[in-house]
Amino acid sequence: MQRKMIGIFGAVLGSMFILAGNAAAEERFNDLQYTKWAEDGIEYMAKRGTVAGYGDGKFKPAGLVTRAQAVTFLVRELYPEQLEKPAEGTTYSDVPKTHAFTKEIAIASKNGLASGFPDGSFRPDAPLSRAETAAFLTRAYSLSEGKQTANWSDTESHWAAAPILVMSSNGLVGGYSDGTYRPNQTVTRAEYAVFMSRVIQFERQAAIQAQDWDKLISYMTVSEQVGQMLMPDIRQWNGKVTTTVNEGLKSIIHNQDLGGLILFDKNIVDTRQVTTFTHNLQMEAGDIPMFLGIDQEGGVIKRIPGGTNLPGQMALGATGDSALAEAAGQLTGEELKALGLNINFAPVLDINSNPDNPIIGMRSFSSDADLVTRLGLATITGLRQSGVIAAVKHFPGHGDTMVDSHLGLPVLTHNRERLDSVELKPFQAAIEDGVEMIMTAHIAFPAIDNEQVTSLKDGQRVPVPATLSKKVLNGLLREELGYEGIIISDAFTMDGIAEHFGEDQAVERAVNAGVDIILMPQNSAAAHQTLVNAVKNGTIPIDTIHASVERILELKAKYGLFERSESLTSKLPKLNQVIGSQAHREVEREIADRAVTLLASRDGKRPDSLQQGDRVVIVAAEEEQAKQLERQFNNLSLKTDIALIGQAQTKETVAKADYVILASYQFRNVASQFGWSAYQTLINEMNTRNQRYTLLSLGNPYETIYLKNIRSGLAVYGKQEPNTEAGINVLLGHQVATGKLPVKTN
Predict the structure, then answer these.
(1) pLDDT of the residue at 173
(2) CA distances from 238 to 219, 247, 252, 274, 600 (A)
(3) What is the largest CA-CA distance in the chain?
(4) How far out from the chain centre does Cα 685 lie?
(5) Active-site residue among 158, 254, 406, 546?
(6) Angle (nearest 5°) at CA 240 between 235 and 244
(7) Which side of the chain, N or C, has fewer Cβ within a 10 Å radius?
(8) What is the DSSP letter of 306?
């Protein structure tokens, strides 16, 4: 059986007489009010482009379906590619070349879908009977006798007894209350559409249960296939945040046959809401469940309110503990799975070897390739154990860049030897460990692909980023590194792609390069249509689409996404046992405590200590950050005050303090361009007065590169609790800073 190619042959089908209508696109019918029982079946087959109306929104459901129409619907469904070939004649005496459905009848006969009568006729305009319907459908589809009882009083000696039994025993057709089947009764257009839809959905379910993905793909339209390759965001609809399955979202899911969605914090109110939301999304998805992904790296990149945030990847790097990394991955996966999410876009396998990197920084484990590899593999293992897919990022490596690919197109100029020994090392190890999803980077790697194209932004020549490079994705990732899993792009809303290439061109090029899933297209409807059109005109081979869809279906099955039996009422009561549980919080605290790292010290062992009765001044760049630190002193016998970097009275306030906490937060900017001079001035003055203080690094821990003569300093790798709490506990002498700086600062 040929795989369904709906949407490709509109030009041919559109030339048909109005008797069957144009089946190239889904129609909306306005005359189904008296056949509500058949509405779903008719609309399903119309969306597949198999059945069509008569124009003006008329389907005429009560009209009788003719033998010619019946085989035409089957040919459209099963052999659309043959409709592109020149018309063939028939040997039937009553089917001249001028008949509206000569070609379809010829194709049906050639493929054994239908035959004529002993007198040499086909009787194309004769109404189809219930017996013939059973015969046509059992010839067209590989159906076996089912387990349901089907004993009709009027079919035992009928010529169609066998196909009627097959259809009936599988629940695909029924009889009447008097125990008859009425095999010679004519069939309406509504009935025929319903019978076809039942068979197709029955066959799809059989393919899913058997995990026969080739068979399932053969029943998927091109629209459905490329829909599996799209994963848009759904942050807003009609100017309002999307937190429920609204009509706009339903329309997007069904019109684009979406295979997945990415959620953001705007989609999340609380744990019960997001669990309800994801459950309802899957209910809307039909027989193929959706990937529902989220960025829950921990630390600065978090989405779940009330969940266990974790101190972040660089904090884990400071502990150097693989067991903690695995525990972090597992608890994150457990919480995401409880919420109905099945992909975590983590861990970050980028090696942050460049202090001026404006976007990775403390999202990375380390500047050391071996440490990133070890902790990355442990995190992947933890996520996998919890039943959540790890989507590692950003291949081939975003750690040594000075441009944020959200805002521009970075270029990494290292030679291949360096890439192999540093950037590619953790990805190669993850592939060998069986990682199942890798996210591409919108970064150019001339050592691998030096092609340049004309930018749509300014007409300049720009290099092709990894996401659009066949040499990077197909040549390097698949052929050289041996990767067999899913390749997902980074967000297509990012300027590294959006500004230079144009979305239509970029979407097509990405798929041809080897991308299986386009993440966050700017216009998902346009991206969907671009892919359908590309298959239609041959610029993307259909085999490329099939290979991607098969990988997607296999991974959905591997992680049990097709097993959707648990009810919402069963899910909701379990949330409190998982989300932010005591066991998870203990792991969170242990990572934070063990991550605290001594950056500078008078004695080489500990920072300046806080003493009872001290008047403490907390200095930060932002008032909210200072207040968050101040709240951790509420239960202590210490007087606190707040001052902000750059304000006129700050120097005076600091001068009167017994102890100063100088909070530094450098992230999402180039470290060398950060406002270090204001910090250096305060440090110099405090040193002159011999004040007790600690420079508390809350972000990327590169302060010692740019600041001199720091006498007391700690790095906690995050400005959120529990990171800051762990740092304060060290200052109070309750804990010792045991972390090891995971990045080079010299």
Answers:
(1) 95
(2) 34, 11, 13, 20, 52
(3) 114
(4) 51
(5) 406
(6) 65
(7) C
(8) T
86 upstream amide cis, omega within 30 of 0:
no
Apex CA 210: angle with CA 209 and CA 215, to 5°? 105
490 catalytically annotated: yes
Contact by Cβ (8 Å): 667, 363: no
Residues of the chain with pLDDT below 70 are 1-26
Of 497, 492, 500, the closest CA to residue 521 belongs to 492
DSSP 446: T
Amino acid, single-letter form, for residue 391: A
- Which residues fall within 8 angstroms of residue 735, CB to CB, at 6 or more apart? 593, 596, 726, 729
Choose among 348, 344, 337: nearest CA to 315.
Answer: 348
Rg over alpha carbons for the chain, rounded to the nearest Å, is 32
Identify the active-site residue in 233, 350, 449, 490: 490
In order, the DSSP letters of 219-235 are TS-HHHHHHTTEE-B--
pTM: 0.93
Cβ-proximal residues to 194 (8 Å cutoff; 6+ apart), any chain: 37, 38, 41, 42
Question: The tokens of 446 are what?
Answer: 């001339």
Kindly give the pairing relationship between strand 659-664 and strand 692-697: parallel
* Type of residue numbered 425: K
> What's the pLDDT tens digit per position in 430-468?
999 999 999 999 999 999 999 999 998 889 899 999 999
Half-sphere exposure of 338 (CA within 13 A, CB side): 22
CA-based nearest residue to 440, from 513, 540, 534, 536: 513
Q: Please confirm, yes or no, whether 254 is among the known catalytic residues.
A: no
